[in-house]
Specification:
By secondary structure, the chain is an alpha+beta fold. The protein has 2 domains: 107 residues, PDZ domain (Pdz3 Domain); 244 residues, 2-enoyl-CoA Hydratase, Chain A, domain 1, CATH 3.90.226.10. Strand 11, helix 8 and strand 12 form a beta-alpha-beta unit.
């Protein structure tokens, strides 16, 4: 930080750099809010910076602002000193919670004072119904989707409670077991490393898996579309899997996409090419607000783009460019490959995001299968991603990340803008299901597939 300027001015400098960057390079600033409304949000955020604004308050202001931009690919880090404090000294709510139908439950014995299966009624005299909206203010998510926010709280409730309500050495908790009386307990706050250590670890499952169940029902599980995470070649996996399905004349297929936060664009369209019954369009358009892109990051060996060049940009309005079909394979008409024509059921949840939501949107729009679970974490109409722009604010050293390409899916018009793919069958686990590891969504899918007659 420049020693000649005040802390307040340094925060304002950082904010102005952020605002200039997103206005010049982020294509979806006004995707879900009109220009007047979003500019007013930016103005009020800047106006809130004063001599009493700490780095933590500045970070909180940013988290609220990014949440209002309604883009789940947005990211903002804590300033380094606060990150160190979080890791080494900060005390948090020590019980891991699982949110089911807007209620909070204890799904494991992370704290011996509160039994697993308990519903948390209140924390520090505030009901859970009052706590959740306060925490949601700080969580980014696509459009108006809430399922992803609940999943984030499943993993990071302690952090967002700390951000929203501050640090406290103890928590007064009211809880109750099913059909039991409400009980009260005072529990001691704990360090993050101890909270994470106490979490029960499930046996690691393969990210890509294929099996055939009784009744000739095929199950494909895909937990990631990120090539850096997958241990086997994705393209070969699909090719071999659908060959087996064809050779065995299997007509019922369940595709489990729960927990799949996305990855490479082409992995979604490649999977759908095995399901499509006719040639299809995948992306309606890809748009930017500038031609000054980091072209090295758009090389086809590191992204799904076709070695992006300035010749692939077509100006459509002031500060709006459309990528030509040469820029990305998903802008072309895609033809089915070894097409599977049987029935399909998709398992989805609030963590089905980005590439996963794109695939689901195309399948949903083309009526290629039924969906089971909960609303996806990614929107039906498209997202803002491509290659992320990384911005380090010079004074606070906060890192801001945002997508540089606005994606619009080639889908029928949504019933409601800013929502995900909403399943035909909304199936929720109970806390007892979670404790007993009873996969009700998958069981329902098998039951449904077994009942269908071909």
């Amino acid at each position: 930080m420049n020693a000649n300027i005040s802390h307040t001015d340094s925060l304002r400098q950082d904010f102005n750099l952020f605002r200039s960057s997103i206005q010049n390079t982020y294509p979806s600033l006004y995707r879900y809010s009109d220009e007047k409304k979003m500019d007013a949000v930016l103005d009020s955020s800047y106006a809130s910076i004063n001599e009493k604004t700490t780095d933590l308050e500045f970070y909180k202001m940013f988290k609220i602002l990014l949440s209002k931009m309604k883009d789940g690919h947005l990211y903002c880090s804590l300033p380094p000193a606060l990150e160190t404090y979080r890791n080494e000294k900060a005390f948090f709510f020590p019980v891991k919670l699982r949110f089911i139908d807007s209620k909070a439950y204890v799904d494991s014995v992370s704290n011996p004072q509160i039994p697993a299966g308990s519903e948390i009624i209140s924390i520090n005299k505030q009901t859970i119904n009052a706590v959740i909206p306060e925490l949601f203010k700080y969580i980014v998510s696509d459009g108006n989707i809430q399922t992803k926010k609940y999943h984030i709280l499943n993993n990071f409730f302690y952090f967002y409670y700390f951000i929203a309500f501050g640090e406290t050495p103890y928590f007064d908790v009211d809880y109750k077991l099913k059909d039991g009386p409400i009980k009260s307990v005072k529990i001691k706050a704990d360090l993050e490393k101890n909270i994470l250590k106490s979490e029960t670890k499930d046996f690691p499952q393969p990210l890509l898996d294929f099996s055939i169940k009784s009744g000739q029902i095929a199950l494909i599980t895909i937990r990631s579309f990120d090539p850096s995470e997958l241990k086997i070649d994705y393209s070969d996996f699909l090719k071999n899997t659908f060959k087996k399905i064809r050779d065995l004349n299997i007509r019922k297929l369940i595709i489990d996409l729960r927990g799949n936060s996305g990855g490479r664009d082409l992995y979604g369209s490649l999977l759908y090419s095995y399901l499509a019954k006719k040639p299809f369009k995948y992306y309606k358009s890809l748009q930017t607000v500038t031609m000054e892109m980091d072209f090295d990051k758009f090389k086809n060996n590191v992204s799904s783009f076709n070695n992006l060049t300035p010749k692939m940009f077509k100006k459509v309005h002031d500060n709006q460019y459309q990528l030509t079909k040469e820029a990305h394979p998903n802008l072309e008409v895609i033809h089915p490959d070894q097409s599977y024509t049987g029935e399909v059921w998709f398992l989805i949840d609030g963590l089905s995001f980005s590439t996963t939501a794109e695939l689901c949107a195309i399948a949903y729009s083309n009526k290629r299968g039924k969906f089971i679970g909960e609303e996806t974490g990614g929107t039906y109409d498209g997202n803002t991603s491509g290659v992320q722009s990384e911005l380090v604010l010079p004074n606070t050293k906060m890192e801001i990340s945002f997508g540089t390409v606005k994606y619009e899916m080639a889908v029928k018009s949504p019933k409601e803008i800013g929502r995900g793919i909403i399943p035909e069958y909304k199936i929720h686990s109970t806390v007892e299901d979670i404790i007993n590891k009873n996969d009700v969504q998958l069981n329902f899918a098998f039951q449904l597939a077994g009942q269908e007659n071909n």
